[in-house]
Amino acid sequence: MEHPSFSVRLAATAAAIALSTTLLTACSSDSAGSGKVRIGISGASSDWDVLKQKAKAEGIEIELVTFDDYALPNKALAAGDIELNAFQHLAFLSQFNANNSTNIVPIGATSVSPLGLYSLKHKAVDQIPDGAKIAVPNDPSNQGRALRVLEQAKLIELRADTGLYGTPESISANPKHLSIVPVDAQQTPRSLQDTAAAVINSGVAGQAGYEVKQAIFRDDPKNPGTRPYVNVIAARATDRDNPIYLKIAELYHSPEVQAAAAEESKGASVPSDLDRPALQAELDRLAKQVRSR
């Protein structure tokens, strides 16, 4: 007959092993047994460094994987090379899913960032000359938003039926005869040397040493119409309920991480607290738009 205390110790040991196995499975089954949660980001960012430390205090080890091409973080996520990514807004994600038959979903919101028109040659929009070249990101979602920025700046007009994914062919009026030059989003800062101006994502602008306040025009991230451009933390659909990943999304909204994010963006980005159902509903709405094109 077993001694009662031995039975208690054995039961406790079994429970501890079961709990440990559950946590290891949740955290590392997709990370080659490393125990790390690999998160793909675009460029170094202090808010993610702070989140990494916050997560460590919670027993979660994060490895930040930096990509310099917008096409790569989703491909890496779909292939299982990383567990999460955080570099894109919903409009970009919906386009990627449609083009690649992937099922990547948002598990948390981060912020909405302004999209600005920058110039090394002109200090105001009205100084841009006739026939000038304007660079815009070439991916469909950011290109469509960039054209809206140019329209809001009264440089062009778009057709009334232009949706989120407009192209230069969507322009209905171009009084200054501007030449719209699509380039890779990461290359837009470099294009400033050869163009009159360029529309640059705030994150890319920051990495290139530009502050949002230097833009000669920018859209308003607080406008309700910017919901498609809410930046998200994304996972594979099969991992949408992973408790470790959801904890990471929650930690992003901690005061320390938010303070670092505000400092990183110089206060330009607006934190978003849209919940998962709202994010998924917006992604589904955008996906319908993409399919109907």
Task: Please describe what this structure looks like.
- The chain has about 290 residues and is an alpha/beta fold.
- The protein folds into two domains: about 15-115 and about 225-290, 3-Layer(aba) Sandwich (D-Maltodextrin-Binding Protein, domain 2), CATH 3.40.190; about 115-220, D-Maltodextrin-Binding Protein, domain 2 (3-Layer(aba) Sandwich), CATH 3.40.190.10.
- It is about 40% helix and about 20% strand.
- It has helices at about 5-30, 45-55, 70-80, 90-100, 140-150, 190, 200-205, 245-250, 255-265, 275-290, and strands at about 35-40, 60-65, 85-90, 105-110, 115-120, 135, 155-160, 170-175, 180-185, 195-200, 215-220, 230-235, 270.
- Strand 1 (about 35-40), helix 2 and strand 2 (about 60-65) form a beta-alpha-beta unit.
- The radius of gyration is 22 Å and the shape is globular.
- The relative contact order is 0.18.
Which features does this protein show?
single chain; 293 residues; alpha/beta; D-Maltodextrin-Binding Protein, domain 2; 2 domains; 13 strands; globular; disordered N terminus
Topology:
Elements: H1 4-28, E1 36-41, H2 46-57, E2 61-66, H3 72-79, E3 84-89, H4 90-100, E4 104-112, E5 115-118, E6 133-137, H5 140-152, E7 157-158, E8 171-173, E9 179-183, H6 188-191, E10 197-201, H7 202-207, E11 217-218, E12 230-236, H8 243-251, H9 255-264, E13 270-271, H10 276-292
Low-confidence stretches: 1-30
Radius of gyration (Å): 22 Å
Q: Let me know the number of strands.
A: 13
Instruction: Please write the string of helix (H) and strand (E) elements.
Output: HEHEHEHEEEHEEEHEHEEHHEH
Biggest sheet record: 6 strands, mixed
Please identify, by name, the CATH architecture of the largest domain: 3-Layer(aba) Sandwich
Quaternary structure state of the chains depicted: single chain
Name given to the CATH homologous superfamily of the largest domain: Periplasmic binding protein-like II
* Estimated share of beta-strand residues: 15-25%
The number of domains: 2
